[in-house]
Target: Co-chaperonin GroES
Amino acid sequence: MKLVPLGDRVVLKQLEAEEKTKSGIILTSQAQEKPQEAEVIAVGPGTEEVKMEVKAGDKVIYSKYAGTEVKLDGEEYIVVKQGDILAIVE
Model:
C-alpha cells in the first residue's frame, strides 16, 4: 500500500531522533525530542489557490504540532498541509 495525499497535503517521514547529545550523553527513547525535520514521501496535486512548492525527496522542517500521524505497513508517517511546512533544508 502507499499513501496518496489529496489537495495541498504532504506525506512526511520523520527523520530519526538524535540518540546522543553534542557532549556525548546517550539519551533514552523517552528523553529524545521528536525532530521537526522530515523527508517528503508524497505530495498532493495542490489546489487552485495553493501551488505545491515541495517535491518527494525534499528534506523539510515542519511545525511542531502539525499534521496527523498515520501508521501503514509498520511505518509511521505524518500527513500535513503544505502551509505547515516551514522550510526546505538544502
Remarks:
- The beta strands are 9-14, 37-43, 59-62, 68-72, 75-81, 85-89.
